[in-house]
Amino acid sequence: METLEKLKILAGSARYDVSCASSGAVRKNAQGHAQTAPGVCHSWSADGRCISLLKVLFTNHCRYDCKYCVNRRSNDVVRTAFTPRELAQLTSDFYLRNYVEGLFLSSGVVKSPDFTMGLLLQTVRLLRGEYRFQGYIHLKIIPGASSVLVDEAVRLADRVSVNVEFASQESLTSMAPDKAWGNVMAPMARASQAILEGALARKTPAGKNRLSATGQSTQLIVGATPEDDARILTLADRLYQKERLKRVYYSAYVPVNADAPSARPPLLREHRLYQADWLLRMYGFGLGEIINPQDGMLDLALDPKAAWAIRNLARFPLEVNKASYEELLRVPGLGIRSAKRIVSERRFSRLTLEHLKRMNVVMKRARHFLTAGGLYGGDGLSDALRVKEKLIGIEAHNVNPQKQLTFLEPISSAEEAWSALTGEL
Predict the structure, then answer these.
(1) 244: exposed, middle or buried (C-beta count within 10 Å: 0-12, 13-18, 19+)?
(2) In the predicted model, what is the mean pLDDT of the chain?
(3) Which domains are delineated in the chain?
């Protein structure tokens, strides 16, 4: 099979893995022609930069029969595989021609986890060694891989990930009968330790230029199994605390096989989980403040921060000229940037409501929960139901709850991109 055909198949096979924050976007030039090669997705670095990655599987051959996966062994799909040399050469060529800034590499499982992991590592060794590839590499660790191979993956990649997929061992067993919970968690724990050791080594003069992964991520599929949002977020919080994960990605379940659950959850549920996750990681909220285990589910009509504020109206309104940074972060409509700017600028002048508008504070939300210079711009906090209805109205205007997750791969103009790569245009 020609390399182009392999690329089209294996890029399409990788589209359901969201643990690199793929946007699936297609960029076009002034003439309307796609400038993106097949399999190129867009992700975001830790400092907020948009980076383009070649997102592919090494192979879609797989010994496992997972019900949620299009590449399961019982599916009648076209199978193919790169060789390590083919994929290393392809990635290097794309990188040198500025099509991509890095590689996201995963794979189906062939023969054994260690055999598959060895093929991935052979590809990355070629890139880092022979091709002198300095771009970003996100490398998927195969569940069940040995500690030695996990250590090497951390040493060679910029980021690694092991997909948990489901929030309980029972659900993993029912949806992926060939996988074991321990085979997922053990490589994750080993990677966490190796990343910490790499970070400590880089602090020494001898290791300051050492390449090693700066973090790991994982993916949780939402809506295919009975776990509620509380169970999902509890696992995510534990992974952040215990394994020091950088990100947990949430993927609304998409049925692709006849013997799997057929109901698709709304994308809005995935959206709420991301909002709650952000509150956990960046805003100082505790898990018990975001969601009540007895309720189990996040409110689809209201974002988690606004829902918390409605439950805690006695804390409001806050005076922006006196409230602490941590308190300001809990005001609906105030983000990290706005809260920092308020704390900075109030040192020089007393802030008013007009100042807040000029700071791009989302006053439609925030005005109900704060005062500026003693002046209140909301409709009163005595009627919680009325405030909630107003916030729900704002939310409904901004979010379409009927929208479903779609996977768009930029492969429609593959021949054109390939021709450009090989110098035929």
Answers:
(1) middle
(2) 86
(3) 3-263+405-422 (3.20.20), 313-398 (no CATH)
